[in-house]
Amino acid sequence: MKGERVLWWIRRDVRIRDNQALGDALARGSTVIPVFILDPGILRSRYHIRAERRKAFLFEGLRQLDESLRQRGSRLIVREGPAATVLPTLMRETEASAVFAEEDYSPAARGRDGEIVGQGLRLHLTPGVSVRHPGEVRKADGGPYTVFTPFRRAWLAQPVPGGRDLLPAPRSFPTVPGGVQSAALPRLPVPGEFPPGEAEARQRLARFTRGRQAPIYTYGEGRNRLDGEGTSGLSPYLRFGMLSAREAVVGALQAMAEAPGPAARTSAEVWLGELIWREFYLAILHHFPSVLRAAFNPALRKIPWRTAPQDLEAWRAGRTGYPVVDAAMRQLGVTGWMHNRGRMIAASFLVKDLLIDWTLGEQWFMEQLVDGDPAANNGGWQWTAGVGTDAAPYFRIFNPVLQGRKYDPAGRYIRRFVPELARVPDRRIHEPWRMSPAEQAEAGCVIGRDYPAPIVDRAAVRDRTLAAYRRSQALARSVRG
Fold first, then answer.
1. Closest of 346, 434, 433 to residue 398, by C-alpha
2. Rounded Cα distance, 147 and 155, in Å
């Protein structure tokens, strides 16, 4: 095949370093044409139609990729339309013989790829979205894992990647033939907290994992603190492959090997475990695509959810009257990102305290998150709702007051995103409704006027929630009976 023209179809791999699809294309074609397709079927789907910040992050990352390609003698070709229409047209224009792309595991991606192959196009799919293909990590009987801990053990039992496995960035590219037209990428406001691009992603990885004082060595404790910077901040970059999953895992393994002590090594292992959680949820989506439509646990698909649009809107706006929940939701609204501890607290409140369908929260997060990924977002929501694989017990309900006290003890996180509580004393910051009228006046925060009173009495809703879950279980048993 060497000597032929081929297309490198960029999807979730907006990078040139450690890109296996690109590596295969360069090895097998004398001319490699990089192409990104603005597919309206994806951009306007239920998960992505209103995700403006995520689109902005992607488009700016593609512009930076184009700059990297131009520095190496190539350029990015952008086309708009359904991939199944665009690719055959572009192949005829360029006389390309094959397409190389990184395999994706979502139902939409698999359906799209099947349609393309069905047209007779030579589509070569390579690994890269995850370190291991979802089909590689299986139980002894050949079935997929649905519990994380044995999945993690099986994942770690297989050979792990090393630095030598990472593909270097090509120094030069074959020139794209003249006359190949390219569409303009849309311009949207870029989220300031996450500068897009491969260079930023690799700098963040280095800052997080390299050196004796690297944050990865305190990650085990720091990852849960809402009032600090204990996380890697790499999730948006992994979402779009501005950093390869393999390079992230190599960074974790190198940090473990170079850890200055046992506690630091354990902390680095925790971050590696989080990367494996990502692989686990990708595997769940691959083997059980129906999770995007319903709870994994069939016994919990008939929960009688409340229809409460005012409560849902209060949750979305960060106006529930529970400070840590509101801070998390406002962080999402302002930055397009939310601390993982905040995601669990906010999700638990919507589902367990307000008894509102978890799929409405899942959809809202996907519209807002820069790092919104169907597999991880769905997995996280089903876990917190207690309806998924390896889920938290359905009767576990996060207490937002206790969560705030534990993970934001001085209220710094709350005050940052809920400024009307800025002058509330520490001892009242997690329960401002307990302030006396004099305390409210002194803090400049009158409950019910400057900041809402709690929209729900948590002491009164636990039994309601447990009864709703048990009703669904009873219905499932009656159907089976």
1. 346
2. 12
- Of 367, 368, 395, 364, give the one whose Cα is nearest residue 381: 364
Angle in degrees, 0-180, between the axes of helices 374-385 and 340-348, rounded to the nearest 10: 50
Torsion on CA atoms 46, 52, 58, 59, rounded to nearest 10: 120
**Calpha distance 378→285 (Å, rounded):** 9
DSSP letter, residue 351: I
4-129 belongs to CATH 3.40.50.620: yes
Q: Is 480 exposed, middle or buried (0-12, 13-18, 19+ CB in 10 A)?
A: exposed
- Cα–Cα nearest to 153, from 134, 135, 142, 138: 138
CATH 1.10.579.10 corresponds to the domain 298-480: yes
Strands of the 29-38 sheet, one edge to the other: 77-80, 29-38, 4-10, 98-102, 123-126
Q: Is 448 left (phi over 0), alpha (psi -120 to 50) or beta?
A: left
Class of domain 130-165+198-287: mainly alpha
pLDDT in tens, the chain (481 residues): 467 899 999 999 999 999 999 999 999 878 999 999 999 888 877 767 789 999 999 999 999 999 999 999 999 999 999 999 999 999 999 999 999 999 999 999 999 999 999 999 999 999 999 999 999 999 999 999 999 999 999 999 999 999 999 999 999 998 898 899 999 999 999 888 999 999 999 999 999 999 999 999 999 999 999 999 899 999 999 999 999 999 999 999 999 999 999 999 999 999 999 999 999 999 999 999 999 999 999 999 999 999 999 999 999 999 999 999 999 999 999 999 999 999 999 999 999 999 999 999 999 999 999 999 999 999 999 999 999 998 778 888 999 999 999 999 999 999 999 999 999 999 999 999 999 999 999 999 999 999 999 999 998 999 999 999 999 999 998 877 6
CA-to-CA distance for 165 and 20, rounded, in angstroms?
10
Run of H or E including 36: strand 29-38
Domain with CATH 1.10.579.10 in the chain: 298-480
Contact 416, 328 (CB under 8 A): no
In order, the DSSP letters of 421-453 are: GTTS-GGGTT-GGGS-HHHHHHHT--BTTTBPP
Other Cβ atoms closer than 10 A to 70 = 12
CATH 1.25.40.80 residue ranges of the chain are 130-165+198-287
Tokens of 478: 């009656």
Question: What distances in angstroms separate CA 149 from CA 163, 283, 386, 455, one per listed residue?
Answer: 26, 14, 17, 37
Q: Which residues are catalytic?
A: 274, 277, 305, 340, 358, 381
